[in-house]
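Risk register update: the risk of archive-format incompatibility is retired. Evidence:
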Amino acid sequence: MQVVLPPRGITRVPGRHITDHQMRLYMKYRQTDSPPVAAAKASFSTSTAYRIEKDRRLPSQKKAPRGRRRPDPLARVFETDIVPMLKAAPGVRPVTIFEELLRRHPELGAGIRRTLERRIRAWRAIHGEEQEVIFRQTHEPGQRGLSDFTDMGELGVTIAGVPLDHRLYHFRLAYSGFEHAHVVLGGESFVALAEGLQNALWSLGGAPREHRTDSLSAAFCNLDRDAKDDLTRRYEDLCAHYGMRPSRNNRGIAHENGAIESSHGHLKRAIGDALLLRGTADFDDLAAYRGFIDEIASRRNARNAKRIDSERSALQDLPDRRTSDYEEVIVHVTSSGGFTLRKVFYTVPSRLIGHRLRVRLYDDHLDVFVGGTHLLTLPRGRPHPNGKHDQVVDYRHVIHSLRRKPMALLNLVYRDQLFPREAYRRAFDVLRKRLPDKKACRIMVDLLALAHERGCEAELANQLTADLNDGRLPDLNRLRTHFAPDPAQVPNVVVRLAPLATYECLIGTAEIGGAA
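Archived output:
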């Protein structure tokens, strides 16, 4: 009989040390070979093969279960103390039970925490309540787009050194992963939703058949019934304009919007990493920050370019034009030289006092109209978090009147917002400390007038900063001389034109006749 030796480097081991794998090999070879041959092929001895013939259980099946190495520290308290707590409050955290157990039985010690957590986990697997099942969905191309807002305060973004309180409107296609992000300065308003959604759709070049959100107040609810009905109608009109069916997930069930909720974290981490690589979270202006966000979204879309291109063919065509992404409000200009809108006072040129203006309210600015004529654009302000009113003031609108009543500056309601730059505010504080109030107000108003009339707001601020840093008070006469002559003192230049006949001597008489 020919015996097949085991491969080189493999030695036969006693039967009590064979593995389940060797046992399975032996049983495989045993179907065609005798016990000694099958044992040799499986790399163990013939005597082990004959023992296996008597008991064909795997080695792992023969092992006796390992007993406890030390006494169970929870034996006397698990059924009496822990189980009643788990049944009374199924959602209670293990650490809470641990703290309560130590309060009742301090002799147990802190070393039982991990044992307790494992025991609670095992008990809940057998006796716990049924949990909600997440049903994974198959997304069809061109079917669903999702919108949501996410807070960006944790990233610490600043604009010219000033912290930027903002959110990010986030749009995503469920199938291809196309993303669009838009910086929102206010809350989750309809204006922000309409502007961000339309920017996303026109950037994409098509519209999905369904637009899904969570229970956004911008689309589905507000403080009172009338406002709720109006807002819902506007949102439905917006979706109808692009042929999309509006839908939302159940309130409080965030995972139903998992296609965008999970993407929030990925996008914010990408922005945070890009800020770290950039070396600073400060931007010169809002436009620079928005361009930074657009670039990050474009990079992420580039990774899914093939999938996005394939989904574009399944999207609906866009309408001929965008629909309105603003709110229109009628306001009345009061004798204070401005109007109040959403707890914010805005100044306008004083010639508009008594007029009714039509204001288009966007997320970051206001367009002001008289009838159909556009007058000016104002930055949008927002009330303080505590509900206190705020002001958006342009000193150019009131400086002509303030020059006639300079003492009005002393206790002016919007005095701090009147100063266009920090240097002007510092100058007024120093003037009030060193001079009487009346003189300080007069000088400050003259400085603002100088900045307006000579168009030197930034340059004058630099001069004021230099004077204040050197401990000097602003010198109006020196500043007036420095910033161009006074228009009233510009000399009247008279230009005398020479008679046209004098130019005839420059050309010959014959040429004149020929030309005639």
